[in-house]
Automatic annotation (TrEMBL):
SUPFAM superfamilies: Hemerythrin-like (SSF47188)
Listed InterPro entries: Hemerythrin, Hemerythrin-like, Hemerythrin-like_sf, Hemerythrin_metal-bd
Keywords: Coiled coil, Iron, Metal-binding
Domain (Hemerythrin-like) ranges: 12-135
Coiled-coil annotated spans: 74-101
Protein name per the record: Hemerythrin-like metal-binding domain protein
Family membership noted in the UniProt record: Belongs to the hemerythrin family.
């Protein structure tokens, strides 16, 4: 379970709400990992659909805010978002190619472990390190 902490707080309410929803959804998924293989697959597919929608909505809104406040590292941050999108697409491809039709519980759990390590931990690191920089010195009146 991943707990919300002040390190994740950016001080920009809309974005902080997005981040909280992300963590709440991830935590709900992680708590449901004790089910059988069919339940795990269903939960995992729901999570992958959520992540796809979340990434598009959240990144688009965050990038729009960056443009409004003339964030100096906008281009680099947008590239980072694209890398995260690409990582998610790669994980989704792996799921549909390797895991979806398999009845191998070990393979499914390995995929979930990789999802947590690769994508979720990367997202947390991104929020703590890179998203924090956006809102350090922004002009609240610019938004």
């Amino acid at each position: 379970m991943i707990k919300w902490s002040s390190e994740l707080e950016l001080g920009y309410p809309e974005i902080d709400i997005h981040h909280r929803v992300f963590l709440k959804t991830i935590n709900k998924f992680l708590q449901e990992l004790d089910g059988g293989i069919d339940d795990l697959k269903e939960n995992l597919e729901n999570l992958l659909y959520f992540l796809t929608d979340y990434v598009e909505t959240h990144f688009s809104e965050e990038e729009a805010i960056q443009k409004k406040i003339n964030y100096s590292a906008y281009a680099e941050h947008k590239q980072t978002h694209q890398k995260l999108r690409d990582e998610l697409e790669g994980l989704k491809r792996k799921y549909w190619e390797l895991v979806h039709d398999s009845s191998d519980l070990f393979l499914l759990k390995l995929f979930i472990s990789n999802l947590k390590e690769d994508l979720i931990n990367r997202w947390i690191k991104h929020t703590k390190n890179e998203d924090q920089l956006i809102f350090l010195n922004y002009d609240e009146d610019a938004i």
